[in-house]
Amino acid sequence: xxxxxxFRIPADLAPEQRRERRRMLAQLGIxxxxxxxxxxxxxxxYLRSQSMSAETLETLDKAIYLMNWAGFMLTVPVILYSALxxxxxxxxxxxxxxxxxxxxxxxxxxxxxxxxxxxxxTGQGEVYFDSVTMFVAFLMTARYLxxxxxxxxxxxxxxxxxxxxxxxxxxxITQNANRLAFWFIVVQVSLAVALGIxxxxxxxxxxxxxVVALFVMSCPCALSMAVPTAVAAAQSGLSACPAQRxxxxxxxxxxxxxxxxQNLHGSIAWHFLMTPLAAVGxxxxxxxxxxxxxxxxxxxxxxxxxxxxxxxxxxxxxxHSLV
Length: 323
Prior knowledge:
Blueprint: H1 15-47, H2 54-82, H3 84-96, H4 102-122, H5 129-151, H6 161-202, H7 204-217, H8 221-240, H9 246-279, H10 285-321
Helix pairs in contact: 1-2, 1-5, 2-4, 2-5, 3-4, 4-5, 4-7, 5-8, 5-10, 6-7, 6-8, 6-9, 7-9, 7-10, 8-9, 8-10, 9-10
């Protein structure tokens, strides 16, 4: 059995894929560095309270004004560079006339960023630079882990009959997952728009935060990872411990299907749990970003079970193959 890690780079990985990996890692690193610094700049805003004395509020407001400008300057590189794959994906979806997951993500980022720029300029209102940088950092982390899992699979395994069976399964279930993700996005975006209008009519001061949180929740990040991570784990299991019999591959496909469905259903359940809370204003945009990240990580952790199951079966079958 060969050791396996999703962060290892196969020797036969194409140069273009190596560059893609390094570029995404750079985008991810900048997003995380900016996120941590912007959250520190946002801290004075968390402390502000009307119960403070007038002199304290005046001093604190001056500090918040300066920190907002600092947060803005650090958020711009995240928007222009770290989030570049999101803008490209959204533009591609628009050109192809389809609703992709990058569209609600891009809209959510703009809805949070543009009013925050206006607030920074006027010095009146709340900013969401911390939520924007956190959302991009978490989203790019999930995508980087997915990319590493896919690239870590040996190309030699992908050319055998065993891989063909797993790949056939992937194509089939991915089509179903894409249809599910499409309707998920449509429902979530429609809900965000409708509730945003209601909040704007009755409580306009809270409308922006609710809309941003709902658009963040509309990102089907965990849904998009549900099948690819499970399939990558199955392929990696074959790479680390090749099957000796066809029944082992069939069992692996069956287990991959079970884990993929668990990922899909669990992701939807998590969103259905968090969306009502966001709709009534109990989930701030930064908390929505954390919720999205947690669901994506949970999908990745659950998918590892496919790899572990394959290794256990391979070990159990190894003595029989030597007879």
